[in-house]
Amino acid sequence: MASLAGCTGKLSLAPCSIAGRITRASDGNGLDEIIVQVNGASNVATTSKDGNWSMSGLTGVVTVTPAGGQGWVFTPSAKTIWRSANDVDFIAVPTTYSASGRVYDDLGNPIRLVVIEASGHPGIVMTNADGVWAWDGLSGTTILTAEAHGWTFSPSSHVVDGPASGVDFVGSPKVITYSVSGRVTDKVGNPIGGALITFSGFAGGIVTKPDGTWSKSGLLGSVTITASHDDWVLSPSSCIVDGPRSDVDFVGSFGANRR
């Protein structure tokens, strides 16, 4: 028993130094900013960029332990040292945890089949009929995002680094606009400029160019397009659209005011 009294292995309590390295199990690279605790020491050691650490001025039998709560599980969990040593090494694997939440609309109704992605982790999870999702086996700092066609979500992402519940997203229908265009001509294809094109639900209108063409962007939902001209009777008088089109054409016949 006396041989364990000091770091030198003798009855003397002469100070000794210890050092080691903490590496990642997956690739052997050093881990930086890992806190290493030594019982009886007045301070702690922190690993450098290459995973190395050291501490001096120790006496007696000491236990070296990488601190918990750093996102890693260490093997071994601790080492007992009683003499100077430079091989007090540990191997680390990421701590895994679970996160869960719910996705719903502005009224609280669940949104199903929303894709939840986690940065640095392959695969996806999806919300069920109740809008609930859960992801097991996460590690490290993870960015969680939600995605579904026709929806935008708030917040755009959540950042987690440990077990988390209530990681919710609120969805709003995505506003999708579209553009339409066409041409106004007479029956033989000659352009009619100056025709007024109006759009239901939208203030104002546009006028056809000298070549008879027109275009409008930023339309939303179902829109009735109406064409008119003081000197022409245009056919059809109106056209209903609900998505992008480039063939909304009108054909003019001589009107009562045409000279």
Explain this structure to me?
Residues 1-6 and 8-12 have low confidence and may be disordered. This protein is mostly beta strands and 259 residues long. It is built from no helices and 24 strands. The strands form 6 sheets. A 4-stranded mixed β-sheet has the order 4-1-8-6, with no helix packed on it. Strands 3-2-5-7 form a 4-stranded antiparallel β-sheet, with no helix packed on it.
Give a quick precis of the structure.
The chain has 259 residues and is an all-beta fold. The protein has no helices and 24 strands.
Strand content: over 45%
Overall shape: it is rod-shaped
What level of helicity do the residues show? Answer: under 10%
CATH architectural type of the largest domain: Sandwich
Please compute the radius of gyration using only Cα atoms.
Answer: 36 Å
Look at the structure and name the CATH superfamily of the largest domain: Carboxypeptidase-like, regulatory domain
What is the highest CATH level, the class of the largest domain?
Mainly Beta
Q: What is the number of beta strands?
A: 24
**Helix-strand category:** mainly beta
Q: Give the N-to-C terminal Cα separation.
A: 122 Å
Largest β-sheet summary: 4 strands, mixed
Count of DSSP helices? 0
Q: How many structural domains does the protein architecture include?
A: 3
